[in-house]
Amino acid sequence: MIQLLVLIVSLLGLPARNLLPFAIGVPLLPGWLCLEWQSTFGFKQELCIGMMVVTIIVLFAFIIYGNAVLINCIDTERKEAREKIVELLVVQALQGTITVQSLLGEGTTFTIELPNPKVEGPEES
Length: 125
Known about the structure:
Blueprint: H1 2-12, H2 14-41, H3 45-93, E1 97-103, E2 107-113
Antiparallel strand pairs: 1-2
Helix pairs in contact: 2-3
């Protein structure tokens, strides 16, 4: 169980680690292109800066979208793992049952029934 928690925490750090190189590299590329276009094509500085800003915004939008998709996948896997752990623990290990009742606007009720090994059946005389 602890190993699963460590894995989940480390997976959530993945998007942050992915963003760091882009945060450094993305502004460098349009800046370099701006300097090249100024010297090669004679573009004015205002035009180059405008193109650089638009390029950075578009690149970061794609990067943020990609990380949002990654975070969604990680969250889905975490939820599935949690459900599997609960199912294994309650249903298989403890021989219990899980039922779910959900009504729109009223909420969801989860019922977990576990057998009590100390309580025996009704005594017969």
